[in-house]
Amino acid sequence: MKTTLLAAGLLSLASMAIGETPVLTVLTYDSFTPEWGPGPLIETGFEATCRCDLQFITAGDGAAVLARVKLEGVQSEADVVLGLDTTLTADAAATGLFAPVAAAENTLPVPFSEPNFVPFDWGWFAMVYDSTKLATAPTSFKELAASNLKILIQDPRSSTPGLGLVMWIKAAYGDQAAQIWADLADNIVTVTPGWTEAYNMFLEGEADMVLSYTTSPAYHLIAEGDATKSAALFREGHYLQIEVAGKLAASDQPALADAFLAFLTSDEAQAALITTNWMYPAKTPSSGLPQGFETLIQPATSLLFSSAEAQAARGPAIEEWRTALSK
Amino acid sequence: MTAARAIAAGIAALILGSAALLAGQAQTWALLPADLAAVRFTLTQAALSAAASVVLAIPVSRALFRRRFAGRSALIGLMAAPFALPFVVAVLGLLTIFGRSGPVNMALAALGLPPFSIYGLHGVVMANVFFNLPLATRMLLHGWQNIPTERFRLAQSLSMPPSAQFRHLEWPMLRAQTPGILVVIFLVCLTSFAISLTLGGGPKSSTLELAIYQSLRFDYDLGRASLLAIVQFSICAGVTLIASRLTLPDGLGSGLQGFAPMMPAKGWRRSADIVWISLAALYLFAPLCAAMIKGLPGLADLPNGVAAALARSVAVALGSSGLCTGLALCLALAAAQDKNRWIEVAAMLPLAASGLVLGTGLFIALRPVARPEDIALPITLLVNAVLALPFLVRLLLPAARQMNANYGQLAQSLGLSGAARLRYVTVPLLARPIGYGAGLAAALSMGDLGVITLFAGQQGATLPLLVQQLIGAYRMDQAAAVALILVLASFTLFALLDYGARRYADT
């Protein structure tokens, strides 16, 4: 027994000496890596072909991931950064820490051209409601504002969906955005710091509608067999959130990083992301979308600021939101 | 004394240093117009919450002090439970009771009354009272228990009416205790942002801490974040100094330890006591039970990582509680002897520290020497210990002052010092607050979700982080079940430490 252990030990030492397995480090948000998240599936899938060790390091959410990239600068041990969205990419690119990557084929509803990033999933923001409690949903923000419906939203200063909503109204209404917010003020039950609080409070019956994604009802339908949740289709169109990954210029594994980014848009990774992140795939896998997704609403118009427009609009739009709701 | 000075300096360096590190990397220095509004709202909600918690805690702790009933001990013990709840779970518990479809609104509807909405400044205060009333009650209860029994006996033999008894015995104790308790709760509420925002109803309820979060996370404006942190520290130091000047010794002298309750009041006073205790119990435990019952169905389907996360959380909580208790004892003994108020101010500083600023500062400082993932648990242990320190010092300080006044000269004349003094004088006299404090530190550490989110890697999740991740992935049942395990584990730790010390003090 002892000799076997010793031999095994020596063997592993020897293999370490001959060729250490290269490590690819991916920095991502912390909901990516748990056992129920996409992380484990992506890790197994990529390690099967890469002859490398894929390791994740995490920071709270997309904004926290970017903050960590900025804090660490070129000292970061990360090779790939995964989980920024299009409201953050202009900021991220401006750091100069990201390297250009090969464009990947995609099935996004809008054209995507950012030289430093590869999209891996996306979703439309939407107001989600319980169809057993609300027979007819409003079909626009104006209709919503004129109704007595109570809604829960997130704070654009601390949450990405919250920021998405501010961008949505700005993109749809431009100069009228402040008026829309003023009209919506009496519909808003409260503004929560993150998606988590708002969505749970909605499930507890604290409001008629909550800001989430058009794909949220798919989770309840597919994972829980619950068909009562729906998303309201708005005439002015729906704002998009596109989640992207990028390669750090200071990476010591640039080839592996490129291989990983290519793997992200493969059928295997894309199929895994749909039912773990509950978003649309950036490139629909050949197997198509899972059963249940055909029940979701399909907005005719997709709204999205370019990353530069988003960066410029963010500060003023948040201030407009704050002023309108502080009265 | 030198040890205490070193600890105080270390804490100040850690807390102020983290803000300084941020400032060192800043590009610009400016506050936004919204920040002034945030300062105003922060001060208002913190002051109202502190006042409400303490005003309510006075009759509740007095009733608990003079009544004996089945379950009293358990009730007092359970009073640390709200602290261990992750914020989201606590808010959902409160909403189950006070929300749109909760029993309160159903009862109002049945009576034909307009519905009650919890959203607004009053909701923020209600949530803060939920978290802090137990703390205020326990702190005041220690005050009542420290009034020497002999004084009550004397008052009774002199046939003092209850009002005179209150004026001569209880009022001096309250006068000595309440400023410190008000400060602690004010400072706890000062740095809360999730409660204010979630229940506040909109951006007019934004606090300083939210502004810090925004500037660090979204805007990456380190200059603004450090300015905001400095504003928070200044408020903290100012309030602590004012309160410490208002604090007077109670002058009640010493008695033989071990206490009989003061003569239980009869008639309407008895009924009033019962009403106060029932209301407080209902207010604290209805939301708590609601949150825990939600966790039952999910227990059958727990994620694999629960056991490991539980082990990590408990290990960090025990380590942090031990460290914190040792440091707090050292600081409280020194502050009780020394006329210099700065040790006390340093001990209160962590309450004004934003967890995010502290974590980011540590991240900047330690990043060059270690991988964040490798040091996540030791850092969490250290930070949790430091963040719980103000509570423990606040708990121990009044008792330590009283001990010095009553036994200081005796111990000195007997030449008791060092370990012997600790063993024969300090620990026996301070056992109650030490036990409660150690339990509280453990519970606070169990429920904490601050620094760990900045440092934890793929494998380092603690229970609150696990709850957060589960809720974020729509897995509400599992999240509620893990939260239930969290509350049970943290309550067990608390009860072992607190009950153990109470048993020790009673023998």
Task: Quickly describe the structure.
By secondary structure, chain A is α/β, with parallel strands linked by helices. Chain A is built from 12 helices and 12 strands.
Explain this structure to me?
The complex is a heterodimer of chains A (327) and B (507). Chain A is an alpha/beta fold. Helices cover 41% and strands 21% of the residues of chain A. In chain A, strands 1, 2, 3, 4, 5, 6, 7, 8, 9, 10, 11 and 12 form a 12-stranded mixed β-sheet that branches. In chain A, strand 1, helix 2 and strand 2 form a beta-alpha-beta unit. In chain A, helix 6 packs across helix 12. The longest helix of chain A has 20 residues. Chain A is globular and about 65 Å long. The N terminus of chain A is likely disordered. By secondary structure, chain B is mainly alpha-helical. Chain B has a single domain, classed as MetI-like (MetI-like fold), CATH 1.10.3720.10. In chain B, helix 1 crosses helix 14, helix 5 packs across helix 13 and helix 7 packs across helix 9.
In terms of quaternary structure, the protein is: heterodimer
Q: Give the termini separation of chain B.
A: 31 Å
Radius of gyration of chain A: 22 Å
Query: If classified by CATH, what would the architecture of the largest domain in chain A be?
Result: 3-Layer(aba) Sandwich
Q: What is the 3D form of chain B?
A: globular
Average of the residue pLDDT scores of chain A = 89
Task: Please report which band the strand proportion of chain B falls in: under 5%, 5-15%, 15-25%, 25-35%, 35-45% or over 45%.
Answer: under 5%
Q: Superfamily at the CATH H level of the largest domain in chain A? A: Periplasmic binding protein-like II
Order of helices and strands of chain A: HEHEHEHEEHEHHEHEHEEHHEEH
Distance between the termini of chain A: 76 Å
Low-confidence stretches of chain B: none
Quick one: which chains have the greatest interface?
A: A-B, 57 and 58 residues
What name does CATH use for the topology of chain B?
MetI-like fold
CATH class of the largest domain in chain A: Alpha Beta
Mean pLDDT of chain B, nearest integer?
A: 82
**CATH superfamily (homologous) name of chain B:** MetI-like
Which structural class do the helices and strands of chain B define? mainly alpha
In total, the number of domains of chain A comes to 2
